[in-house]
Specification:
It is rod-shaped and about 135 Å long. By secondary structure, it is of the alpha/beta class. The longest helix is centred in the first third of the chain and has 84 residues. The protein contains 8 helices and 5 strands; from the N terminus they run αααβαβαβαββαα. It has a 5-stranded mixed beta sheet with strand order 3-2-1-4-5.
């Protein structure tokens, strides 16, 4: 009912407090005077004055309470939306993790199937003078033992390469180079024969996807993986997804690299341990 009234708002200033005390005191004095003289109408008027001045002084507090309630409501809404968003994000993360795990399982199953198919194909080349060693390598790595790569360069010292090739053959590891020498298959074959000889017990595979997938930038590099690297389907220059692995680079022997990975690796120490057992057996 006070919407049509136009009166100054109580701001909490000194003048407002002086006015409040003055009006309240006057109303109280008038109420006492009327009560002594039994003037009922004046008592009611003075009581209304006191109620009015108290209401006037309490208006900012009530407004602040209303503002606080509104702010609290907004905060509650924001918190509710935040909780909802967090729940949605957690649900999305769980779904993404499940999909990723499924894809990883599918990739591992596909890799195992490819390995089996490759092994069957290699048995046909077992006595071939050119590919016989590659067939022996394929048969040397059990499917359940993951994959072991030794990344090298044909520019490394020949004796080191020969020893790595011998050890890799015995351990069931695959020796890989990044690409062709000067882009020529002939030059690559000549360079490989100069290193390993005509009757080499182990060959070398050109697999740039191994270098890209595992980020090999130094050779020799020793990689023990839970599964082989799968070729990607986006062209020859694409990067294959890396399978879980442990990697070590440095001018050390294969045996030393396998011991370190077997002891300190956290992804495929069993692959390195099995290869070490074959190498030392």
């Amino acid at each position: 009912m006070f919407e049509g009234l136009n009166y100054p708002a109580f701001s909490g200033s000194l003048m407002c407090w002086v006015a409040f005390v003055a009006v309240l005191g006057a109303a109280l004095s008038l109420f006492i005077f009327a009560w002594r003289n039994q003037w009922l109408v004046m008592q009611m008027a003075s009581a209304l004055m006191m109620c009015g001045v108290v209401f006037w002084a309490s208006t900012p507090a009530m407004a602040q309470d209303a503002l606080g309630a509104a702010a609290r409501a907004l905060i509650d809404q924001a918190e509710a939306r935040g909780r909802s968003a967090q729940e949605s994000l957690e649900e999305w993360a769980a779904q993404t993790s499940a999909v990723t795990e499924r894809y990883q399982r599918d990739a591992q199953e596909l890799a195992a199937a490819n390995q089996r198919a490759l092994a069957r194909g290699m048995t046909m080349l077992r006595n071939d003078p050119t590919f016989g060693d590659a067939a022996a390598i394929a048969e040397a790595v059990p499917e359940e033992q993951g994959a072991l790569y030794v990344a090298v360069s044909l520019g490394m010292p020949k004796e080191s390469l020969r020893q790595l090739a011998l050890d890799s053959h015995k351990a069931g590891a695959k020796v890989v180079i990044r690409g062709l020498v000067n882009g020529s298959f002939e030059q690559t074959l000549v360079a490989a024969k100069e290193v390993f000889g005509e009757d080499a017990v182990s060959g070398v595979a050109i697999e740039p996807q191994v270098f890209r997938a595992f980020g090999v930038d130094r050779v020799p590099a020793f990689i023990a993986a839970t599964a082989p690297v799968l070729p990607c389907d986006q062209g020859v220059d694409c990067t294959s997804a890396a399978t879980p692995h442990d990697r070590l680079a440095g001018n050390i022997t294969l045996a030393e690299a396998l011991r370190i990975i077997a002891q300190r690796g956290d992804q495929a120490p069993g692959v390195a341990q099995a290869a070490l057992a074959r190498l030392e057996g």
